[in-house]
Amino acid sequence: MRFEYNIEAGNFTKAGDASSSFKKILKQLNVDPQVIKRIVVSLYEGEVNIVAHANGGKVICDVDTSRVTIQLIDVGPGIPDIEKAMQAGYSTASAKVREMGFGAGMGLQNIKNNADELIIKSEVGVGTKLTIIVNLNKI
Amino acid sequence: MDSKHFHHALKISDDICIGCSHCMNVCPTEAIRVRNGKAILYENRCVDCGECFKACPVSAIFIDQDDFKRIQAYKYRIALVPAVFFGQFPEEISHNQIYTAILANGFTHIYEVETSVDLLANEVKLYAKAHPEKKPLISSFCPAIIRLVQVKFPALTENIMRLKPPLDITALYCRKELTDKGINPAEIGVFYITPCAAKIAAIKSPVGEDYSMITGVINMDTLYNKVYKYIRNDRSLNQVVIPKKPLSKTAWQWTLTHGEAKHVPGRSLAIDEIHNVIEFLEKIETDEIGDIDFLELRACDESCAGGVLLSANRFLVAERLRSYSPVAKDEISEKESIFTYTDYLLRRISIQPINPRSMMKLDENMEEAMRKMDKSSQMLQCLPLTDCGACGSPNCQAFANDIALGEADIRQCIFIQKNREQTGELTPDESLEMLKSIWGNVKFFSNRK
Q1: What CATH class does B3-63 carry?
Q2: What is the spatial distance between Cα B235 and Cα B34, in angstroms, rounded to a whole number?
Q3: CB B154 to CB A23 under 8 A?
């Protein structure tokens, strides 16, 4: 089954709507509560990234009985050095933003910790595609 | 626990119910439908919050209590009285008058439920410190909230603090104190004066407990009326003085909003009223809100002061409880205090893990659940999204799910009916029969008064 959500750039009041809707679906499909938590936490993190950094994008969630595959596709600046971006604590945020408590460089790490698989493809000046896979039968 | 054995204190009287659907529209877990002109309850979804009880215009929803006469089956009749009971009475009525009136109505002993709060408050602090991995810790105080987490937020059941609420600790304490005086345990009847339905349900089918120490439950309004009548008839002149440790300020305020949260170190939040709690837990579940150490969550607005079985205004009750000061220390008899039993009670203060009981799932089997979800979304596309409730389900989405679950027929929707009458797929008679099956025959008598 496929579920799609559009993500509006810069609208933080709506960041989390996709995760919230998809969470409801996973509950209805009787997915294990702890697995739902991992899926939703990584989806939320990815969703906020699009809102904050890209010029908008969409989320495509595919569910079958063995796994959930989430693609977060944005049109935006892209990530110049993915390896670096994956390092815990690495951040491009300005000192001012960090003072406010954002941009700690833990976002992608948090996704990686919660997902079974994380694939990042990015092209500078074009956009980024995150693929998050969480297996369902493993508890 | 098997849902079949899940006790509910909230009952609907078919004889009184007029099938108005007010209860269906306020239920926060969508546990009510209207069929054949009567409200029906999906028991595995109900969390006993009492919203329906408050909304019913004809008092068809009642809270099943024990017969008051049942107390007489015991030689020693303990009334476990919550602090909010006292807050219902006007200032000119003293607590000793209230004690006197409770005893005059047949009880032999009175224990305030919050007697155990000072002991518990300390344990909560220690527990929070010992379980830093379970943030935010959710208070185990409100049974409606525990059930809500089980059915609607199953991933958060692990966050519920595994400590007994004050009621259970005080029940243990009073039984122990009396049996230590040589009283035969079989002669002790412990009766809880409840401010709400959820507490009754928790006693009749305890969650996280093997059995309950409480013999029976009396609704707070029942005792309020008896006590108030006694005092109004001025028969409380021979006042008794209860030689017990008076409640501390912490204890008086524990069941009010912030009463618990303000004693937990770190970042604690107090949220009351069930819709507010749901809104907040949705965000906690997604990790959108981090760095919170403790959540005091209560189903009623103004917490227990807003219990559905209270007679006085909830804001007044809360204000009165906040004004009660503890009695001076030299009046406290340490010998009679709960702290004599600290070791005994602390050995028994833990509760079992709370298991999830998700009510959201469309089917146990995921493939089947996906089929039902498909069907439900197909159905939803045909529905008007007006959430009018004329189909007997609370909204179009719930109706679509009901169809997918085989519990409703798409022709129950009045918009679908009109369409099908137009195309000739449904005769006006069939359409009327359909509505009668939801709302009952009586609403369709043309000369109805």
Answers
A1: alpha beta
A2: 48
A3: no
